[in-house]
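User: I'll paste a sequence; please echo it back and then give the predicted structure.

Assistant: Echoing your sequence first, then the prediction.
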Amino acid sequence: MGVKGPAVAFTVWIEAVPFPKAKTPTRPALALSDLQAVERDFAFVVDAGVEALTAVNAAYGADKALIEAVSVFDQFTGAKAEEQMGAGKKSIALSVRLQPRDKTLTDAEIEAVSAKVVEKVTKATGGVQRK
C-alpha cells in the first residue's frame, strides 16, 4: 500500500452502532417566583420506630402545588423524650416551605394547607401534633 508513517484501520459493524440519544434537558428550567415564600414549623409525637422520611413524604403529599420543600430540623429521642412524652415515643419537627406561583397566599389559605399537613402526617405516622 506504500503508506509511510503511522496508519490506523478499523471495521464498523452497522448493527452495533447505537441509536442517538433523545435530546432532552438534563433538568427542568429554573422557575423563580416573585412572591414571598411562607415557612411553617410542625412537631409531631410519634412511635420511636417511625422514620422521619415517612413524615416528610406525608407532608409533601398535603399540597404538591404549593409545598416547595420539607425538611426535618429536629428529632427528640432518648430517655428525656420518653420521660416527657411516654415510653416508646419521640418527637419529629418539620419545616414546610410554601411557595405560591400566581398570587400571594391569604392567612386562610396558609391555615388550610397547614391543616392538611397536620392531617396527612398524623395519618401516615399514627402520631399527634405537638404544640
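The radius of gyration is 26 Å. The chain has a mean pLDDT of 87.
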